[in-house]
Amino acid sequence: MSDRKLSLTPRVENVRDKRQIEPVIQFKLEEIKKRFDDSLILIKKQFKMADDLRNREQEKNYKNVWRAQVVFLESIVDFYLHELSKYAICCMFLGTWNKSEKYYNFKIPLKNVEKGIKEPENINWMLEYVNEQFSREVYLSVEKMKDQLNLLGLDFKDILCTAFVNDDTSPEKYGKIIIRELFERRNQIAHQLDRKHSNAQQNDISKEYVEYCMNNVEKLINSIHKAAEEKEMTS
What we know:
The chain has 8 helices and no strands. The protein is mainly alpha-helical. The longest helix is centred in the N-terminal third of the chain and has 36 residues, at 59-94. The protein is elongated.
């Protein structure tokens, strides 16, 4: 015990690793859409994996691949909306897009505004702020998606009517049902492995259901992107 050193040692300061801040890139509208399309192709390719497992009669495994595809589908929808949001806000700030009513009420902390005043030659400060702000949010529910598209000056009702125009029921009503049900299923898979809270039984899933989800997601994003392109041309 006598050999123990009980004296205090000075605290070492300024040794914590400093993470390098990655610059935020402002992508063009066509680049944002291409990233979505490429991601969708990758998700579709997972059908082959599921088919191989199905041929080997590994039911739990191939159905979990289908479940993963549903989660991935929602992830690329959300990421597309994040990228489009950054692009649109910066365009409205620069005046190359017509400003929406909600844009004028978009709140920015004074510390970011002061940074912008000091750097009037670029909009990196704005891009960095909206990137940080939007990355915290999820736009997959009907309400959140509608609010975000309204911020960008894109009409949610028109987008749904364009996306689901060939369906028998009201396109707007049908589109909301599609978005709501897909978001709920995504949450059930991601947070509960597709199990019901009531009895812990796992919901069944089929390849046809996943294809149905893919088709609706593709129609929705194509409609949103078309609205964004039209806004860009008319601004």
